[in-house]
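Input/output pair, single chain:
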Amino acid sequence: MTVAPLIGLLLGGGALAWAPFLAEDARPRASERRDKAPGEVADLPQGRTHYRWHGEDEDAPVAVLIHGLTTPSYVWDGVVPGLVDMGYRVLSYDLYGRGWSDRPPGAQDADFFLTQLVDLLEALSVAEPVTLFGYSMGGAIAAAFAARYPAQIEKLVLVAPAGMGGFPTGLTRWMRDGGWTGRWLFHLLYPRQHRRSARTAEAEGVSRSYARMQAAEADWRGFTPAVLSALRGVLRDPMALEHRKIAKEGLPLLSIWASEDRVIPLEGMGVISRWNRASVQKEVAGAGHWLPLSHPEAVVRAFRDWLWEDGEI
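Output:
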């Protein structure tokens, strides 16, 4: 092979190697659309965080909602009215790397997300114990927060929660554990995989508008790296220690599961029961992993029934 073709081959291979990362850098920043965001933005030490208050009574007990790995705070839109009707003032916010919040660098481990929540609660002067809801990855974050700051928790509600082990599986697990090669392949494949998954949400009862919003998350810079970083961080290991600490502290814990969930299977119900025998488990029949978007009334009903069974309402 002469020198010129060899140089061409090397340059072509280099371009291919960097193509997924160049495509990521070419995507627009979330800050470019922030002026259209509902709610407000808090300037926190790690970055700007988009949040919304729901409910007019500033003296009402506070419920804080943490979303999951890929779906921003709008995943709670159907749940919020029911909680407000129950007398809560509700705070929802976008985790870093998602929605209208910033994409700060750093490993997205439990400390990363707990710092964001601690900073946000301090910025908003929320000092009293809160009822903390966590969906999917948000369930892992909520459990980590409750274990570290039990005095700040009134009640803990986990919806299709991650942190029980066994997630992710298949190629996604290989990419998570595959070092630089896995990172390259994840950047290459994940945006299309995410959009395809969002399209299937309609079959599980999610409205078309929300399915389109979910698919569009992959169009924004920093989203794909954030997903991979969280898979390698807060979602890597089971949270047995955190849940046993929650049990030791005697924090009231409700877990709500989806009977047809193919992302976080029902086996997790048994796992969390072994870690915390005082926890209460409820199952929503016919629901998949999009539970808060597809069956919001069932989520609120499960929470209300739990309070009623405990004699609180």
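The beta strands are 40-43, 48-54, 62-66, 89-93, 130-135, 153-159, 253-258, 280-284. The chain has a mean pLDDT of 92.
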